[in-house]
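Message: I would love a firmer grasp of how sequence relates to backbone shape in proteins. Thank you; the sequence and its tokens follow:
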Amino acid sequence: MNKMDRVNNGKWWRMQHKSDHHKSVMFIVDYAPRLVQDRTPDNVMMKMKRMELHQSTEDVHPRPLREMRMEWNRMVEDGYVYNAD
């Protein structure tokens, strides 16, 4: 199975802050080519949604999966962990 098999429109992954359970981030697939063999880190587009206790913000413009991988790593450095619920 190729990792890109799991990257479909609407798929999301959530991270939660280790020490502040009110902070979380969702990485949401906004667009992925229909055929799996056509999907690459440069043409799968994602949005990021940050959530706190009483507010949330979401990217207006989607960014490539390649950039979102770097953003994921930054979130890990900031104390977020993957929440597989």
